[in-house]
Design a protein that fits this description.
Shape: globular
Number of helices: 12
CATH class: Alpha Beta
Largest sheet: 9 strands, mixed
CATH topology: Rossmann fold
CATH architecture: 3-Layer(aba) Sandwich
Distance between the termini: 52 Å
Structural class: alpha/beta
Number of domains: 1
Number of strands: 9
Strand content: 15-25%
CATH superfamily: Alpha/Beta hydrolase fold, catalytic domain
Order of helices and strands: HHHEEEEHEHEHEHHHHEHEH
Helix content: 25-40%
C-alpha cells in the first residue's frame, strides 16, 4: 500500500507541477524556458504578495515561569497553517517584543507537532526575551495542504513569508525587530526568506543549513553523508526535481534557468546580517554547504559570522549551550 500511495503521489505531483507551476504556456525550447518567469524563481517570489492574516489563538497551553505558550493559526495561500507562539512575561519593551521566526528542519510531516519539536531551541530564545513564532508549513502536523519539497517548490517559503506578515500584525510584537532562525531544511527556507524579503528581516541565524547551491543539493548532498533518509524524506526532498530536469535540463546544462531559482546567486541583495553555525561531524548535511555560504557572503561584503564545532552533530548537541548563547548574542545585537 505505501508503494502504491507513493506512486499515486508522484503522478499527482507531476500533474500539479505542470498545471500549477508551468501553465498557461509550456516552453518549447530552452531559450524560451529561460525567458519565462518561473514561479520557483527568486524574482517571481519577490513579486508575489504575502498578506498573512491576523493570528488566531487556537489553544492556550500551560505557561512557564518565563513565557506564555499558545497554539495559533494564520492564513497562507488560502490554507490554515498552525504555529506555536511564545510570548515573554515581564515588562514589554515600549515598541513591543522582538520576534524570532523559528524555521524547523525536516520532520515526518504527519508526526510534526508545534509544541513537541525543537523544545530546547525555542525555550532558550523565549527565555531571553523574544516572541518565538514557529510555523507548521502546509501539510505538516494539522496544517492544511500537502507537504512538499523545500528545494523545488515555493510553498514553504510562501508559508514562512505569510507567517512573517502575520506576526508583524500581532499587537505584542515589534514589527521592526524581526529575525529568523533556521535549522537544516529550515536553513534553506531562511536563506530564501532573506533573499526574497530584503527589508523586514533584520537578522538571520542558520544552523547546519541545506544552503548549498542547487547543483550541490541535487548531485552533491546524499552521496557525501552517511545518514540514510527514510523513503518519505527522500520523496519529499526530491519532489518536482525530476520534472524540472526533464523540462529544463540540469544546472550544468542550463545554468541560466537554474540560477534564477537559486538563492545563492542573489546573495548580493541580502541586507540582513547572517550568522552561520555548523557541526563538523554532521552526518546529514555536508558542513561544506555552510562554509561555502559563509565564504560567498564574505566575498559579497555582507555582515556575516561563522562558527564551526569539532565533533558536533547535525543538531550541534555537543556544543548546544555555546551555540545557543552565540545565537542570542547575535540576535540581541541586531534586534534589541
Amino acid at each position: 500500500m505505501p508503494a502504491l500511495q507513493n506512486a499515486v503521489s508522484q503522478i499527482l505531483a507531476f500533474v500539479a507541477l505542470l498545471v500549477g507551476l508551468f501553465n498557461p504556456a509550456q516552453p518549447k525550447t530552452i531559450d524560451e524556458a529561460n525567458k519565462m518567469l518561473n514561479p520557483l524563481s527568486v524574482q517571481a517570489m519577490r513579486e508575489k504578495e504575502y498578506p498573512g492574516s491576523s493570528i488566531v489563538i487556537e489553544k492556550i497551553l500551560s505557561s512557564t515561569e518565563d513565557y506564555y505558550r499558545y497554539i495559533t493559526s494564520y492564513q497562507s495561500d488560502g490554507l490554515k497553517n498552525f504555529a506555536l507562539l511564545l510570548v515573554p512575561k515581564g515588562n514589554k519593551p515600549t515598541n513591543g517584543w522582538p520576534v524570532i521566526i523559528l524555521n524547523h528542519g525536516y520532520i515526518i510531516p504527519k508526526k510534526y507537532t508545534p509544541e513537541g519539536n525543537y523544545i530546547a531551541y525555542y525555550d532558550y530564545l523565549a527565555k531571553h526575551g523574544y516572541i518565538v513564532f514557529k510555523p507548521n508549513y502546509r501539510g505538516n502536523g494539522k496544517s492544511e495542504g500537502q507537504p512538499t519539497s523545500t528545494y523545488f517548490s515555493p510553498d514553504y517559503v510562501t508559508d514562512d513569508l505569510n507567517a512573517l506578515a502575520a506576526i508583524k500584525k500581532y499587537p505584542e510584537a515589534n514589527p521592526e525587530r524581526i529575525g529568523v532562525w533556521g535549522h537544516s531544511m529550515g536553513g534553506n527556507i531562511t536563506l530564501k526568506d532573506i533573499v526574497v524579503n530584503t527589508s523586514d528581516i533584520k537578522a538571520a541565524s542558520i544552523w547546519a543549513g541545506v544552503v548549498g547551491n542547487l547543483n550541490d543539493i541535487i548531485f552533491n548532498w546524499q552521496n557525501r553523508v552517511t545518514y540514510q533518509p527514510d523513503q518519505e524524506d527522500l520523496f519529499l526532498r526530491n519532489l518536482n526535481k525530476d520534472t524540472l530536469i526533464s523540462l529544463y535540463q540540469t544546472p550544468t546544462e542550463n545554468p541560466d534557468f537554474w540560477n534564477q531559482l537559486d538563492p545563492t546567486f542573489f546573495l548580493k541583495d541580502i541586507k540582513a546580517p547572517v550568522q552561520i553555525q555548523v557541526g563538523l561531524a554532521d552526518s546529514q548535511v555536508p558542513p561544506d554547504f555552510s562554509k561555502s555560504l559563509f565564504e560567498k557572503l564574505v566575498k559579497e561584503g555582507k555582515k556575516v559570522e561563522y562558527f564551526e564545532y569539532q565533533g558536533a552533530n547535525h543538531d550541534i548537541n555537543q556544543s548546544f549551550t555555546t551555540a545557543m548563547k552565540r545565537t542570542v548574542d547575535f540576535f540581541d545585537l541586531y534586534l534589541k
